[in-house]
Sequence to fold (360 residues):
Amino acid sequence: MSGASVGLRSRSASLPSDARFDWIMLAGAVWLVAGVAIDGWAHNTIRPLIDTFFTPWHLILYSGYLATSAVLAVTVARNRTRELTWRGVLPRGYDAALVGVVIFGVAGLLDMVWHVVFGIEVDNGTLLSPTHLGLAVGAVLIITGPMRAAWFRTGDESWSRHLTAVVSLAGLVTLLTFMTQYANPFAGLSVSAVSEVVELTGKLRDGSSLAIERVIGWQETRGIFGLLLQAGLVMGPVLVVLRRASLRPGDMTVVLGLNALVMLLVRGNLPSLWPLLAYAIVAGIVGDVLLLRLRPAVTRAHAIRIFAAAVPTVFTTGYFLTALGFPGGVWWALPDVTGTIVLTGILGVLLSYLAFPGDR
Fold:
C-alpha cells in the first residue's frame, strides 16, 4: 500500500510520508487505542471501583493522545511556511489525523465535565454517551492516518511499510467493534449452551415458560445481530481499502486476529474463550488464501464479489463450529444457524456493490 521521502523535516506537500513518520504515528495511535481497550477492560471488570474521571486507565489513554498530538504539532511547526496551508505542512493523508486530534481533545475536556455533572456511566451507557462517541470519532481519524497515507503511495513497497497500513486497518476495525461490543460475538458466546442465557434464565423470578422464551429469544436476536454487525464492520473497511490500495496474504490474519484478541481481553473473556481467538486466526488464514487465489481488485469485480461473500461466511461458520466445542454445544435451531451464515455472506456481497459499483 511505496514510498518517497517527507518525514518530519520535509517542506514538500506533494510527497507521501516516509516510513519513519508512518511508524512514529502508528506507535502513538496504537498507544491511544491500547488505552481505549484498557479503559474498556476496567469498566467491564472492575467498574464498581471506578467513580472518578482521573484513573490510571485514562492516564494511559490520554498520554497516547498527547504523544500523537505532539508528533503532529512538531511536524506542523517545522514545516510551516507562508506558502503552505495547515494541510500542506503535513505528510499526505495525515491532515484528517490533525482534525482527529482536535476532536479528541475537545471531546476529552467535555467528557471530564460530563462525568462531573452526570457521574460515571455503566453498561451500554459507557459506549453511547455523546462525549465518548466524540472520542471515538477522533480516535478513528488518528488511527487511520497510516492507512490513508498508503492510499496516496504508488508502486511496490516493503513489507515493513505495508504493515503500518495493515495495523492501521486493524485498529480501525477494533475501534468500531469496541464501540459496538454490546453486540459483539467475542463479548459473549451467545450461541452456546454455556452463554448468558443460562445465567439469565436461572435468575428469573418468574419461572414461567413465557418469560424464559423471551430471554432466549432476546439472546438469539442479539447473537444474530452481533454476527451480522461483525461481518459489516470487518468487510466494510476491508473493501474500502481494496478500492484504494491492495491487500497481501497475511493481512486478513492480522486484522481478524488482533481484533479478536483485543475484544476478548477487553471483555475479560480470554481465559475461558481462548478457542475463539484460535478460530479467528484460522478464519484470517482462510481469508489470506482467498486473497492469494482470487486477487480481488477494482479490475476484477467477480473476484471482489466472491471474496466479499466468502470471508464473512467462513468467519460465521467457524464461529458456530467453535461453539460446538464448548459444553452443551450450540443451542440455536439449525435454520437459525444456517440462515445467519447465509445472511453474513449476502451482507458481504451487498457491501461489495457499495464499494465497487458497476459491472466491471
Summary: Residues 2-15, 198-206 have pLDDT under 50 and may be disordered.
